Amino acid sequence: MNLKPAKSKSTLVVVLAATSFFSVTASAQTITGTPGLPSATTTINGLQIPVPPPEFKGKIERNATASEPYWAPQIAPAKGSPNVLLIMTDDTGYGTPSTFGGVIPTPALDRVAAMGVSFTNFNSTALCSPTRAALITGRNHHSVGFGVIAEQATGYPGYNSIIADDKATVGTILKDNGYRTSWFGKNHNTPAFQVSQNGPFDQWPIGMGFEYFYGFMGGDTSQWTPGPLMRNTTPIYPYVGDTDYNLITAMADEAIDYMNRINTLAPEQPFFVYYVPGGVHAPHHPTKEWIDKISDMHLFDKGWNELRATIFANQKKLGVIPQHAELTPWPKDLLKPWDTLTDDEKKMFIRQVDVFAAYVAYTDHEIGRVIQAVDDMGKLDNTIVMYISGDNGGSAEGTLIGTPNEVAAFNGVNVPIKDQLAEFYDEWGSNETNPHMTVAWSWAFDTPFSWTKQVASHFGGIRQGMAIAWPDVIKDKGGIRHQFHHVIDIVPTILEATGITPPAVVNGVPQSPIEGVSMAYLFDAANTDAPSTHHTQYFEMMGDHAIYHDGWIGSTKVVRPPWEITGPVNQDPAGTPWELYDLNKDWTQAHDVAAENPEKLKEMQALFWKEAEKYQVLPLDASVATRLVTPRPSLTAGRDEFVWKGTFTGTPNGDAPSVLNTSYTITAEVDVPEGGGDGMILTQGGRFGGYGFYLLKGKPVVTWNLLDLERIRWEGADALSAGKHTVEFDFKYDGLGMGTLAYNSMSGIGRSGTGELKVDGKVVATQKMEKTIPLILQWDENLDVGADTGTGVDDKDYQTPFAFTGTLEKVTLKVAPPVLTEADKTKLKEAMVTKD
């Protein structure tokens, strides 16, 4: 099957080499037009990118009249090369979309499947950043430094969150071969300590080969007030003053405008659009229109157990699971059966899932608009549309009961059902909540498999539905493929389909091999039942691990439910017991056959350790939440004093000084105008967790927002007079501090502390805070001085941006982490032995 578009008869062909890449002769160079004229173009062999400066082939004399100009041919893809639209949603289990048996309508994914082929055995890494790093590089996630999400990076090669120069992305490869490249939506592949305006920018999308970026840098964000939202490297705030703004729609608008712009300026120019919306990662933020539409369908009234049965039956009818596949059992010891719930629980859980389902449908609808825009240009027939449903399985991070604020869940705080009903039911999904649903729904949406996101050893965490369409080439419309493949296979598939050679050298750096294999052989109906070309694949995430090889998978037992992110840590993940599954007979991992096949299990275990060493998987580390606050490089590393002069907004969480689990002092030298001062002095976080130090009608105020569940407030009795003043907030922390994290203990964090508010050296308010936020503030908000760029820590006090009306001459933050004595360390070690 020749996937390369036919050349124009007028094309001059210069063959540089006769090597072959997959089924396509990719190294044949073609020059279109007359060399030397401005209209000439050339393809490149692609082995070295960017190509060396071209030789000047004109003539230069002393005078221009006796000289001959020469324009080197512009680099362009081969004539007729396809556009590529690579789409991936977030946190979506296999059984979620209608295309793969789900009850939630996803017509855009249905459309892609109907135009092309569906893949039922396509796998991820079980977590966001790792899957995305593998997707854009064609290498395993540990190979490119993303063994975990960027915010959990540690100082090991497989976990440092840095995509090394010897592993160029598909953006770089396509760009240097003449494509226009862009990225819309979620990034999460820039080190968390490099996302500030200080850069460096080589690990940002524009530094990784994507010429245009519109999206957010972290793992998730509010769709109502997204932050930090970037256009290339510039923060933007399009939602200010727009009460109807939602990023899911705004991003589709932006991508459509971009593609139309490219098409208008250069109709023959092929483009690569990487489209990765925040949906449906928490917070679940669909519009009210979509919530009402889904709620009126009553899809979930019979509960999660009936939902699983329905999805399973649909999957067999559609043929997206084999007829012999078994539904894995419901984990009654972990998750309550629906018929055992109270009426209040059922009511709240249905509200949670209606909002999630609305988010799924809404996200797919906007993706459909992007696909339709390509069709409206008349370019859909020669566009490769890859639509991956989820970067991992359904998320269990909403806890067993769901949460109106995922920041609270990541700090180990649960909101009881009665409080959810009383305080958040009607607002669930609005900008007043940061919600996530209960684990049980996520487990159901992973039907027919067991487990969820974060679990790399079982298909509930790693199996993704996917469809690929290319109408001009894929003629098996509506076909289904069951061959095993992995997210690292997307890049080689794109390269084969576009006829582009994987580079050997990029920017002078020799490249490591691409580790995936092409799936393009499955575009041909003749290969429907062909053996998979992807034979071996390891999996590992936070200590949980597995190895696939030719129809068998060895999987470690799940020893930490993924909704337990702040509990005790397995200190010996390498010693976790194993299970074994024969996938030729047991497609869903329903039957562990380790006891019957001890030699096969040993063979698979040995293969895992071989692959783990090869791909930088070691050392295994089972820690989860505590890795969020592990010391790592940043603008704040090694510093205990920070000074700002005047307004300075937009420092992201990963590059901002932390005041968690430490004593600290904020001192502001201000000049209050006549008539009184107002506005923000210093803030970090926002509506769902953070602090603010500000003047309110002239009075100094400090507010600590404890995860939108409680607000602790210090306020001076008198307004500041006009003129210069020094206002200070001094907080003394009672816990042992960050040093305890070296022992994976939660005992020293989230402790109490006492704050004193002072004006010109005089104490004007004192209060003890019995609990503090232990792990992380609202991560999609900034640290701001002189204004508030996101949401406020207390909407009753002020509305953003709440700019300071006087003059901020100097703001100083000093942090003083407690120092552990040797005796403290010994006690903590003893406590850990007892606890674990």
From TrEMBL:
It comes from the Bacteria. GO terms for molecular function: hydrolase activity; metal ion binding. Residues 82-500 form the Sulfatase N-terminal domain. The keyword Metal-binding applies. CDD domains: PAS_like (cd16025). This is Arylsulfatase. Keywords: Calcium, Hydrolase, Metal-binding, Signal. Residues 1-28 form the signal peptide. Gene3D superfamilies: 3.30.1120.10, Alkaline Phosphatase, subunit A. Belongs to the sulfatase family.
